[in-house]
Write a structure and sequence with these properties.
mainly alpha, 7 helices
Length: about 210
């Protein structure tokens, strides 16, 4: 009888063993993919934050609440470090009295029509591994796709801003039309800062996702 039990046990292990091994390997690969996505998300988020800061200085929202948000996004969660010059500027701005704060913000404002050298954003690793997302929970997949939607909107806004900037060099425009184009360019930069913030917040949800759940 014991021999029969051992034979039966051996047969069962042979039957289910490959499936168990594949399940473990799949879980291991999924965890590593999640870590790699988080790494890219952190890099993109910092670039979005720095871009939003450039826009805030010259066109957009440079409130104290925004600066607190910015500091949180730039600080490295593992090393508690970030771009030293930007973090130092944030700390200095948060400490000054309100009247001086308003004055400094006003001094940094750009002239209408002034352009910023903005570049399109990419999420190369995430885009390359989109087909692998079906191995993740639906909630995680949704977070990634929501971020990619925000990134598409951001890149469209950047393209539009570049288009309006090119129009400012059109010598055939009347003075009134040139002023209108310059005003629209400024509005585009304000909108781009807002989208940078939204995209960075979407990335935060991916970064904070508990990878043990996958």
């Amino acid at each position: 009888m014991p021999e029969v039990l051992y034979l039966l046990l051996g047969w069962l292990l042979g039957l289910f063993g490959p499936g168990i091994v594949e399940h473990i390997r799949s879980h291991y690969d999924r965890r590593h993919l999640g870590v790699a996505i988080r790494t890219e998300a952190l890099g993109i988020q910092k670039r979005l934050a720095v871009t939003s800061f450039r826009l805030a200085q010259t066109y957009g929202d440079m409130s104290r609440d925004y600066l607190v948000w910015l500091k949180q996004k730039l600080a490295d969660p593992s090393q508690r470090e970030g771009p030293a010059n930007v973090l130092a500027a944030i700390d200095a701005m948060l400490l000054v009295p309100e009247a001086e704060f308003v004055s400094v913000v006003a001094q940094n404002r750009a002239q209408p029509g002034s352009a910023l050298g903005l570049k399109r954003f990419t999420s190369s690793f995430i885009d390359t591994n989109l087909l692998s997302l079906n191995r993740f929970p639906t909630t995680y997949q949704s977070l990634v796709h929501e971020f990619r939607n925000q990134l598409d909107i951001l890149n469209q806004e950047i393209e539009m801003a570049m288009s309006f900037h090119r129009m400012t060099f059109d010598s055939s425009l009347s003075v009134a039309n040139h002023a209108a184009v310059s005003s629209e360019l400024s509005k585009r930069y304000i909108d781009i800062q807002k989208v940078c913030i939204r995209a960075a917040d979407k990335l935060q949800e991916i970064i904070d996702f508990d990878l043990k759940r996958i």
